[in-house]
Amino acid sequence: MLRSAVAATVLSCVVACTVPTVWPGSPPCPMTVHPPIAPRQPHTTTVHGRTLSDDYFWLRQRDDPAVRTYLEAENAWTDRVLAPTEELQQRLFAEIKSRIRETDISVPYRLRRFVYFSQTEAGKQHVTYFRRPADAPEDSADEVLLDVNRLAEHEKYLAVGTMRISVDDNLLAYTTDNTGFRDYLLHVLDLRTRQPVAETIPHVRSVAWANDNATLFYVVDNAAKRPYRLFRHRLGTDPSTDTLVYEERDERFRLDVQRTRSGRFVLLEAFSHTTAEIRVGSADHPEQGFRVVAERRQDHDYRVSHRGESFYIRTNDRGRNYRLVTAPVADPGPANWTEVVPHRDDVMLERARCFRNFCVLTERTGGLTRLRFLTDDGRDHYLALPEPVYQLVSGDNHEFDATEYRFVYQSLTTPPSVFDFHVARHTRKLLKRTEVLGGYDKDDYVAERVHAVAADGTAIPISIVHRRDVPRDGTAPLFLTCYGAYGLPHPIAFSHALLSLLERGVVYAIAHVRGGSDLGKHWHDAGRMHQKRNSFTDFITCAEHLAREGYADSRRMLAEGESAGGLLVGAVVNMRPDLFASTILDVPFVDVLNTMLDESLPLTVGEFEEWGNPKVEADFRYMASYCPYTNLQPHAYPAMLVRTSFEDSQVMYWEPAKYVAKLRTLKTNETPLLLYTNMSGGHSGSSGRYDAWREVAFVYAFALWTLGIDE
Q: Is residue 477 part of a domain?
C-alpha cells in the first residue's frame, strides 16, 4: 500500500461542501460536509468455495499512518455533524454530574484484621482505596491502600484489574492496565513501607496468595489474550526463574486462579464456554501441586467451593440448569458426589458460595434472581424481594466466619442498595442506598415486565421503565437495548444518567432475548450457534410489540447494543432497515466471519462454542447468513452512531471502522452515519469517571437528536 497516497486521499475526503441533510422524523443538520470515504484496497478470501471480498482489510494495519488519519477524519466528521447538539451534550453532562454525589465512600467490609473501603472525591477521575484496623476508633486515620488517581497522573488510560491482600495483611498484589488493551502488569507493594517488594510481571490476568505470605500464584496471557499459563513466584526471587505449574494447551480454554474463601485451598480453573476442569492445591503447602476434581469431559461444566471437609460443586452433569453436590476433600471425584440440590428445569443454579456455617445459592427463575440460604439445620430460607423487575448481586463477602451475607439490590427505579442479611435471624439491614441528588422520587416512574410472543410461540421478557405521566398512546419515543449472548443475563440496573432520557419522556426498555441466560441455560442454547438468529427475530418481535401496545411511536424508536449486542443491532438493521429511526452500536462485533476466521485474534478460538467455527462449512454458512458486515446491502438505513476504541482488545477497532466505510458506499438515504473512535480507550471506553459521563452525554445527545428531542 502507498501509505502517503492513501493518507492524502483520506484527508481530501474532508474538504467542506455544505449540503442540507434532512431525514424523516428527525431535525435537520444545518451545516454538514461530505463524510470521509475510505479508499478501497481489494482483498479476497475463499472459504468453502465462497469468495469473501473485503475492500477495507487495510484498516487492520494499526501502525499505518493512513489508518489513524482516516479514524481522525471520521471523528472530525462526527463532531461536525453533531455540532448542533454540543449545548445539549453539555447540559446532559451537567445533569448527570448533578445527580451523583461526587465525594462519596463505599460501605466498609471486613477482611481479617482490617476493614476496607473506597472513596471518590469531587474533581478526581478515579477511586482511592483505604483500610483501617477493625478495632480502631472511627476517628482514627485511614491508611491509603491504593490511590488510582496518583497511578493515572501521567496516563491517558489507567484501570486496576485485581487486588489481593496477603494472609498476614502486609502485602498487596495488584494489576494495572495503562492502554485499555487488557494488558495487565502485576505489582507487589509492602503496605508497611509503601515500597515494591518484587519486580513487576507483565501480562498477568489473575493472582492468588499462598498462606506463607511469600508465594504468589499468577496466570499470564498469551499473544491472543488467552490466560493460559499458571506460574508460582517466590517473593525475592527473579520472576524469570518462576515455576511453570500448568499450561493449558487447548485454545478453547482459559485459566483463572483464586483462593477459596476458607483460605485452605488454591483453585485453578480451566474453562471454555461449555466445559470446565478444576484443580485444587493446598494453600498451606504451595509446592505440593494440584489435583483434578473431575476430569475434563466435553460439555460438563462445574465450579467448586469449599466448606469443612467437603467441596460443594455446582455441576451440569444431570441437566443444563445445574445441580449442587458435595464431595469429600480427601477424594472429590464424581464417584463420591452426594446430591444436595437437584437439577430443575425451571430454576437455574447460577452460583454457590460457601461459608463456615451456611451456603448461599444464587438461583434464577422467571427471568429474575433470588437468594437461597442453606444452613446446617436443614431449613432452607429464600430471601423475599419487593419489585417485579430488579437486579441482585453478591456484595463484599470475604470473611469465611461471617454470620451475615452482604448483597446489593437495585432496580430500574431503586438505586444500588447494600444490605447485610443475618442468616440465623432472617433479618436484613440496609447499610447504604446510593444517593440521587436533585430531588429524585422513584414514585414518579413506573417499572414493569411485559412479554412479547415470538413467531414460534416463545414469550420474550421485556423490562420497561418510564415516567408515570408518559401516555401509553403510541406517541412516546423508545430507547430499546439488548445483549443476548454468551449466556449472560442482561443487567437490570439503576442509572443516574438514564434519568435524563426518562425526564424527557423517553421510554427505556430491555429486550431479554434468547442467547442470554435470563430464563436459564436453555435460553442461552436457543440463541447461540445455529440458533443465533432467534436473538435477532426476538428483538424485532419486542420492538413491534412495544409499538403495537402503545408504549412507543413506531416512527421514533431507537435500537442500542454494545459488543455482542452491537452485532445484534447490526444484524437487525440488515433484516429490517425500516424498523428503527436510529441506532447506536457501541464497540460492535459486526465483522463476524472475518474475525472468526482469524485464530490469532483475542477470543476467536474460545468463541467457536458460541458462534461456530467457520472452518466447518455448516457453521460458516450459518454465520454468513447474519454477519452484519457481510450482509450490508443497498438500503435506506436508519441514522446510526457507531463507537469504538482504538485499544479495544475484545472487538478490534477495525470491525466498526470497516462496517461504516462499507455502509457509506451502500446506503441509499441521507440519514447520518457516524463513526467515533476513542483513541485512548478500551472496550468500555475511557477509564476516568468524568470522561465516562461525557461519553454517555454524547451518546444520549445523539439519541435525543435523532428521536426529535432537542431540549
A: yes
Does residue 60 carry a pLDDT above 70? yes
User: Given 272, 305, 563, 649, which residue is catalytic?
Assistant: 563
Residue 683 annotated among the catalytic residues of the structure = yes
| Closest by Cα among 511, 630, 489, 496 to 561 | 511
For the question of residue 530 being annotated catalytic, the response is no
**Greatest CA separation found in the chain?**
78
Q: Do 242 and 251 touch, CB atoms closer than 8 A?
A: no
Confirm whether 347 is domain-assigned: no
Q: At which of 409, 435, 461 does a domain end?
A: 435
**425 and 469 belong to one structural domain:** no
C-alpha cell at 256: 483463572
Q: What is the C-alpha separation between 628 and 630, in angstroms, rounded?
A: 6
What is d(CA 505, CA 476) in angstroms, rounded to the nearest whole number?
Answer: 7
Q: What is the pTM of this model?
A: 0.94
486 shares a domain with 404 = no
Mean pLDDT of 598-615: 96
Long-range contacts of 195-199 (CB under 8 A, 24+ apart): 197/171, 197/235, 197/236, 198/233, 198/235, 198/236, 198/239, 199/238, 199/239
Which of 648, 649, 686, 687 is catalytic? The answer is: 648
Task: Flag whether pLDDT at 625 surpasses 80.
Answer: yes
Determine whether 37 is exposed, middle or buried from the number of CB atoms within 10 Å of its CB (0-12, 13-18, 19+). Answer: middle
Q: What is the CATH number of the domain that holds 685?
A: 3.40.50.1820
pLDDT of 10 over the 80 cut: no
Q: Which three cell numbers stand for residue 348?
A: 437455574
Residues 552 and 431 in one domain: no
27: nearest Cα among 83, 68, 67: 83
Name residues whose C-beta falls within 8 Å of residue 327's C-beta, 6 or more positions apart in sequence: 293, 310, 311, 313, 333, 334, 336, 337, 338
Range of the domain at 491: 447-706
- Whether 422 and 480 map to the same domain: the answer is no
21 pLDDT band, cuts 50/70/90, is very low
The DSSP string of 103-124 is SEEPPPEEETTEEEEEEE-TT-
Task: Quick: pLDDT tens for 179-229.
Answer: 999 999 999 999 999 999 978 999 999 999 999 999 999 999 999 999 999
8 A C-beta contact, residue 635 and residue 667: yes
SS (H, E, C) 178-199: CCCCCCCEEEEEECCCCEECCC
Q: How much is the average pLDDT of 124-153?
A: 93
Q: Do the strands 478-482 and 507-511 form a parallel or antiparallel pair, or are they unpaired?
A: parallel
Q: How many domains does the chain have?
A: 2
Give CA–CA dist 71/10, Å, rounded. Answer: 9
CB contact at 8 A, 669 and 681:
no
